[in-house]
Amino acid sequence: MKELVVVSGKGGTGKTSIVASLAALAGGNAVCADCDVDAADLHLVLSPRIQEKHEFYGLDMARIDPEKCTACGECAEHCRFDAIFSPVSGNESYSVDPISCEGCGVCFHVCPAEAVIMEKSVEGEWYVSESRFGPMVHARLSPGGENSGKLVTQVRQSAKQMAETRNCGLIITDGSPGISCPVIASLTGADMALIVTEPTLSGEHDLERVAQLAKQFGIPTMVCINKRDLNPDQAENMMRRAQANGLEVTAMIDYDSVFTAAQIEGLSVVEFSDNIAATQIKELWRKIVERLELNNSREEFPADQNGKEQQA
Fold it and tell me: How far apart (Å, rounded) are the C-alpha atoms in residues 309 and 285?
């Protein structure tokens, strides 16, 4: 089993559109995992039917039992996050601000009356679904929810279990943009990273950052420059710099309004059209299959939705 993680150093590069097309080209023989849990949108194209729904718990949060609280103030004195409110009058108990509470548990340990209770906090949900391209695992982190990296790990573990159960040879993971905690959780232990970028100065800067992150984890990396013809000179410069740093620029995809049109219809680009952009994505898929050595079974991983064979 192999895992391909598609990431981008910044948002808006077309990463999720690329992932949706790769899922379509896999012909239903891959598990999709949407690890962009803070702003998941792969489901808008894959239209998954939820089979299982699970709650995601973050850190335990503090709550003060007013019946036990003696208003001694020990909890407030030791809370470094200023998350505990003092009583308005001496007859009231202390209380916890759930927004400011970091779940460290100091108040629980210092309370002499044992009035502090650490409770499980529901921070989101994760789902096991069926899409028209096969099984999919995805999640939704609640607004302001913590531990998105932990939720990403849960999604990836469930996707791996699903791939083993379904005997799928590939997991296609849609990672988060940037280089923060959920991106690190998305990349760790992957077999290949595909970085989708765009020919802008910020795109070049963020490509270098996320490529360095993948290098630190020892993950082989491919680069796709999307919207190439918006700035051909910048695209060529990025390709040269990437190659000088040992990165393989596997695909350069032209800007095309078909990406937006396909999204409006809830379809991937390769389903919606057979134009030049779709052809470039199919060529990217052929190279991915070759690099991950998935082309041992041409029936398992078809070249495109028309059933053409891969050319190794």
Answer: 12
Q: How far is it, in rounded angstroms, from Cα 305 to Cα 298? A: 13
Closest Cα partner for 24 from 287, 254, 281? 281
| Pair of tokens at residue 54 | 């699970």
Question: How far does Cα 269 stand from its chain's mean position?
Answer: 20
3-state secondary structure of 103: coil
Task: Determine the length of the chain.
Answer: 312
Instruction: Kindly report the CATH number that applies to the domain delimited by 61-119.
Output: 3.30.70.20
Write out the DSSP string of 52-94.
Answer: EEEEEE-S-EEEE-TTT-----HHHHH-TT--EEPPSSTTSPP
Q: How far apart are CA 269 and CA 279, in angstroms?
A: 10
- 205 DSSP β-pair partners: none
pLDDT tens-digit readout, 225-254 = 999 999 999 999 999 999 998 998 999 999
Element (H, E) at 117: strand 116-119
Q: Does an H or E element contain 8, and which?
A: strand 2-8
CA 52 vs CA 10, 160, 221: distances in Å: 31, 16, 33
Output the pTM of the full model: 0.85
Reply yes or no on domain 2-57+127-291 having CATH 3.40.50.300.
yes
| CA–CA gap between residue 42 and residue 150 (Å, rounded) | 19
The C-alpha angle with vertex 202 and arms to 280 and 183, in degrees rounded to 5, equals 75
Per-residue pLDDT tens for 161-178?
A: 999 999 999 999 999 888
